[in-house]
Amino acid sequence: MTLETKKSVFVELGKFLSQFSEEQSVQKSDVLYNDIFFDDFEKLIHLSQSHNGWYTPEQVYFAIKSWADALTEENISKWISNYSFDFAQDDKKERTVALILAGNIPLVGFHDFLSVLITGNKALVKTSSNDQHLLPFLAKYLIAVDENLKDKITFVDGKLENFDTVIATGSNNTARYFEYYFKDKPSIIRKNRNSAAVLNGKETHEELEALGEDIFRYFGLGCRNISKLFVPSGYSFDAFFQAIFKYQDVIHYEKYANNYDYNKAVFLMSNFKLLDNGFLTLKEDSSYASPISSIFFEYYENLEDLKSRLETDAEQIQCIVSSNLTENSVAFGQTQNPRLWDYADNVDTITFLLTTK
Length: 357
Fold this sequence. Notes:
Layout: H1 3-17, H2 34-51, H3 57-70, H4 73-80, E1 96-100, H5 110-118, E2 122-126, H6 134-145, E3 153-155, E4 165-169, H7 172-181, E5 187-190, E6 194-198, H8 205-216, E7 226-232, H9 238-243, H10 254-269, E8 274-276, E9 281-284, E10 294-300, H11 303-312, E11 317-321, H12 349-355
Parallel strand pairs: 1-2, 1-4, 2-3, 4-5, 6-7, 6-11, 7-10, 9-10
Antiparallel strand pairs: 8-9
């Protein structure tokens, strides 16, 4: 398969995904194989919550739209234009890449899957037990578009065998296991990371409202969700609480509400001081990893000192939201819309796959 062929296959997938919306899914006449896949995918979206209670239709539709927006010819061309794909043109040099995927948010491992195939390698995929259905379905669609991919994609339930390279995502504990188990293989091992927002008190209502999207999308389960706020000394949270009030319905979702009740009770029994609006608690804490339904915060005196702190803690941080207060910061409301060239942990997966022998 040529690089252009691979690109065109994923563009077709983007067109397929673009048909699905929480408001109304509508078939488009120019999309391939709708007669085979459209109805079944719509059913799968609504079944996802029975497979994983956090995968509500709203969240799955959002993930699908994000990938539909990413998988355009313009975006894929811009992404791959920065690399030399001589390797990817030679099927004789293809390697089998074992992918151990997370399942905290829908299709969280799709970028790794895409990267392996676009670089001309084979994907040996072990999905998370929390997300076992969406990616295999999309793989079937890709194979329908180009049957040459049939020999490039394998899903396994048990032990991973006969592979050359590994990309594995998990917790800090599982990462230690991965590092030991795969010590003789070229690998990317991803650990826990969290995201933070840096505020200066001059944010508009619209920016703070958009920050709520960064906090509550996927119920806060993603590594790109904001779990920590840095605010200037004396900062008043009134405007913040007013802006995020539009997300109050999150408390009506039972799994989120159970976490809110439990974590709030734990904090209060430990005599921690909390700020609370009835669906989110704020706790002053130096950690980056807050539990579901809670955000940690810290006051800062000097922005330059904070920047130095963030550089020191870089390996704990996935992304930072601010109004350009820090280098490479993400705009408010955009953490869950990464571009194809926004790599997890800032590790360039394509370069790794093209240069690793």
